[in-house]
Design a protein that fits this description.
globular
């Protein structure tokens, strides 16, 4: 069951890492125009459809909204952290603009993975989730991200300005690192929002869909942030005319919808995957970090496919692959550590029982 859960999360991570590929097919729209249109699908439409799956038989859409209103404090806090996450989403795009898909996602999602896993139980008062295996897993994940960051530095140092621009048009390592770290910090608010939204679920809802109403609230908050910014950019760049290009709508709407579906798949997969991890408290607590680590892994695979690492030395590629291997190991490490702890407890219990039996044996 655990393997199935991890596989589902991995599929969602692969879809998310692929979500920026369809955007390259969008024609003659400015960034702010296609960003908010794909956001309608990624942050409103598909999350709403997902939330409908959490409604048990015999209940309807009205019951979903009643559930949210009955838990108004949790609903507002979940949306608030969604608004904050929206800032991370905006800067996330900039991190890839300056660093490329591979390195930009690696730094931003790595920061998001560690902070989201650590801060969520702190904010929600569930510090008991921060067990030693979880903390070790986070540390190993960050080590993997750091190794990939070193590979990025090696790449930056070895390439000429022309080669950097050929791989990533607006490449800027220093500016990109600053933006990526800010993006990761704010993006961690998504995990905190999900933590606050745990109570927003039906008791008889399928465990695989239980977190989807909270996901809808977080993404709705993020949509509000992005909508305000994109409209401001439409005004500043006089790009409202993009929406009047009717000949482009069929193509652009299709690829915006595809990008939105792929992006949402990561959180749909996270919810489904957690449904198969119910017997592993440590993996449930670590699931956010697993998702982000796999996002980083697959984003770097795409970076290789898109030739963002072309021209780098063999040593740089080796360092990159070592970082990816560490990330993959980090996804399983907490469970392995937990299993080892359980085995040690069993051995200790058996030893104590044997000693007690020996002490009561008159022939001892």
């Amino acid at each position: 069951m655990i393997i199935i859960g991890l596989l589902i999360i991995a599929i969602g991570a692969f879809c998310q890492s692929s979500s920026y590929v369809p955007i390259n097919k969008i024609k003659s729209w400015s960034w702010e125009s296609y960003w908010i249109v794909q956001g309608v699908f990624a942050w409103l439409l598909f999350p709403f459809i997902g939330a409908l799956l959490a409604i048990p038989d015999g209940k309807g859409v009205c019951d979903l909204f009643t559930l949210m209103s009955d838990n108004m404090n949790s609903t507002l806090m979940t949306m608030l952290f969604g608004v904050l996450w929206g800032i991370g989403g905006l800067t996330f795009g900039l991190s890839m603009r300056y660093l490329g898909v591979a390195l930009g996602q690696s730094i931003a999602l790595g920061t998001c993975a560690g902070l989201g896993t650590i801060l969520t139980p702190i904010f929600t008062g569930k510090t008991g989730d921060l067990t030693t295996p979880v903390i070790v897993g986070v540390v190993v994940t960050l080590v993997g991200i750091a190794i990939i960051g070193i590979a990025g530095q090696m790449k930056s140092a070895s390439l000429t300005e022309e080669e950097k621009k050929a791989a990533v048009k607006d490449f800027s390592f220093s500016k990109g690192i600053a933006v990526a770290l800010l993006s990761g910090f704010m993006s961690a608010c998504f995990s905190i929002g999900l933590g606050y939204g745990e109570s927003i679920s039906f008791a008889d809802s399928d465990p695989m869909f239980r977190t989807l109403p909270a996901t809808l609230l977080v993404t709705t908050g993020g949509f509000i942030t992005n909508l305000i910014y994109c409209i401001q950019q439409n005004v500043a760049h006089k790009s409202f005319g993009d929406y009047k290009k009717s000949s482009l709508w069929a193509n652009n709407i299709f690829f915006c919808a595809l990008a939105g579906l792929l992006w949402y798949s990561q959180f749909f997969g996270l919810s489904l995957g957690k449904g198969f991890l119910q017997d592993s408290a440590v993996l449930l607590a670590f699931s956010w970090c697993i998702l982000m680590a796999l996002n980083v892994t697959f984003s770097n695979v795409w970076g290789i496919i898109l030739k963002e690492w072309k021209g780098c030395s063999k040593l740089t590629i080796v360092v990159l692959l070592v970082g990816l291997a560490v990330l993959i190991i980090s996804s399983f490490l907490p469970q392995l550590l937990q299993d080892n702890d359980v085995r040690e407890e069993v051995i200790q219990t058996e030893n104590v029982a044997q000693i007690e039996e020996d002490l009561t044996n008159p022939n001892f």
